[in-house]
Hints:
Chain B: InterPro entries: HemK-like, N5-glutamine_MTase, SAM-dependent_MTases_sf, Small_mtfrase_dom. The structure holds 2 protein chains of 2 kinds. Chain A is of the alpha+beta class. Chain A has helices spanning 9-17, 39-61, 65-98, 103-131, 153-173, 211-215, 316-346, 351-354, 384-388, 392-431, and strands at residues 142-148, 177-184, 199-206, 220-226, 237-247, 275-279, 297-301, 306-310, 361-366, 371-374, 379-382. Chain A has 3 domains: 1-28, no CATH class; 31-131; 142-341 and 357-415, Alpha-Beta Plaits. Helices cover 42% and strands 20% of the residues of chain B.
Amino acid sequence: xLAASWVCRSCARSVGRAGFSSTFLRRASTAKPALNLPPxxxxxxxxxxxxxxxxxxxxxxxxxxxxxxxxxxxxxxxxAFKQYEKAKAALSELEGLLKSNDPEMRELAQEDMKDTxxxxxxxxxxxxxxxxxxxxxxxxxxxxEVVPGPGGTEGRYFADTVFxxxxxxxxxKGFRSRIIKYESSDSIGSKGSEGEIALQEAVLEVMDxxxxxxxxxxxxxxxxxxxxxxxxxxxxxxxxVAVWVLPAFPEESTSSAESQWDNPESDFYIDPKExxxxxxxxxxxxxxxxxxxxxxxxxxHIPTGITVSMQDxxxxxxxRENAWKLLRSRIAQKRRExxxxxxxxxxxxxLAQSQLTRGDKIRTYNYGQDRCTDHRAGVDFHNxxxxxxxxxxxxxVIEAAQAHFTxxxxxxxxxxxxxxxxxxxGKSKNGK
Amino acid sequence: MPxxxxxxxxxARRLISPLAPLILPVCRDLETTSNELRWIRDHVKSHPSPIxxxxxxxxLVDKRSNGTPLQYVLGTQPFGSLEILCRKGVLIPRHCTxxxxxxxxxxxxxxSPSPIKVLDLCTGTGCIPLLLxxxxxxxxxxxxxxxxxxxxLAKQNFLHNFSSLPPSSNMTFTQNDIFSxxxxxxxxxxxxxxxxxxxxxxxxxxxxxxxxxxxxxxLALVPGxxxxxxxxxxxxxxxxxxYARILEIAREIAAKRVLLxxxxxxxxxRVVEMIEGKEYGTVGIWKDEVYGATHIVEETQIxxxxxxxxxxxxxxxxxxxxx
Lengths: 432, 323
């Protein structure tokens, strides 16, 4: 009980708040559901673990690069499976102890029970994550493309803010990044309230391997609600900025087929015959007769109609290389999305509803309420200035989005496995 | 040059910057103006100096506004992955030169694995041999120019771009007139040249832009009148006299490949007709945009030779190869 007979209400409230960090999480809709691994998935894990043991025994005798690669692929599953088995064994042992006659023993077992349960849940989650097929672009660097949505200059100013946010985030996290394109719209001279320019289109390349997996959840419409600098009556406006995350072809080429762009099998492959390249202004005799500073390059991929133009650098060579890079990334992403669409149509489950399409808003930045909401994870974060500075709060937002993606992948995997299992069961029944 | 409408100046002032109307007459449109202004700002930002940057920007814009090429104003021009220093009195490297040099390097690196020898005549800033040695690390290069300013600038460019390496002997720069007797390395793998090739009548016409006529060295653009006697000896036009001499040199030293920049289709045809003998089995004409447009290939016939025409744009270079 409190020593004082009464406490002023606002003081009481502040006592309650003291323990809260500024990032208040609304976790109600994202509490981790208890995972029950379907038997089919469990069976697959068992087989992979057995294969892992076999392979490591074989590799102890003589080394084979191919087998080694396979071992690396499945080792995560094997480790997770072993941990899962261990937790399960511990659990059954504890259950045995619970039935013992010694009351002290029972008490101890009861205490351990809780820990073991969480261990089991964790390891089964880890196992399902390990079993989830990795995204084919997960190990690649990425391009983050920021384009303002339709509307006035307000959206363009905010596009610049979003672009700066990712740039600063990369700096804070120690990712190597590089601006490939940073194009302002016609009204170049005018500046927003915080010195941002009216952005037309900007592309940031994050060169670290695996950054595609990191930023994958950032793609979508980002919505801003604030009072623009140009607004005289103090009304809040809503505008949108589109962020696309494209896989980039890594500079240090590796041997895998996916990352070799001159391999026709790869998503990145473009037949040069299908690309129309034009220097934006061709004129006159050329050569020594003229001395042009224009270095703009425009590439058009004829079958898809995708156009890329680049004029940032004084060097035509750099512009051309960057334009090809962006074109390749866009086409790879498009091909991937088309394939995913087909896969999605095959999957006739509840999941189809939870899939987001390109046009859906994924995040809201509300200046008035100092709030950043991720709509997929259903999480609110406060301290908006820190988010826009690319600080630790943004890291939390990105983590939440990533967690949501992992969750969705696991659900999809389980749904697929269950569908396959019921189909197989139905078949065997018919067979009888 | 057509007159620019006053509205364009107002727009430049309103949309870009108060400095924009100054360089609009030389840039001719808003997009180029805003790009050039941005490059000037970037240049000032990346080269710190005690002078206030606003003043420096104004100085550079002022210099540019009288028509001085941007490359002379900023002192550099990107060429492939190199940064070439530019100075008054030496020709500025062009985009088409960059394009065919890049394509040439891919051709050479795919065909000859051993260390290659490059000979570049009329080198100017030295951009062609520098980019070739940069892209083909085993290459050795010799660069020759008649102008002492060019040779000193080419040496500076070598130090500017290869400063991390010790001043090695894989590049030599010599000041020499190619019409005088020369001592040249024998049988180079590639002989390149971007000689003066503009006829004096074209130089006076609007085909040659004002900034080139007024600010770039005539020595690098138009074959001088002192070569008239040579032209009569070689029995060719004055603007083609350098090609006649270079082809003679190529024959003497048995160059394996020759690449010559030309002004356009007519001159390319005249150069192809000048080739004597049957040493050079492959003859091609490359256009402005050849690197990255190598899939656009046409075949034509000039005299008895079959010619492969690669790329798009104007005809820009003649390529000869023994292989």
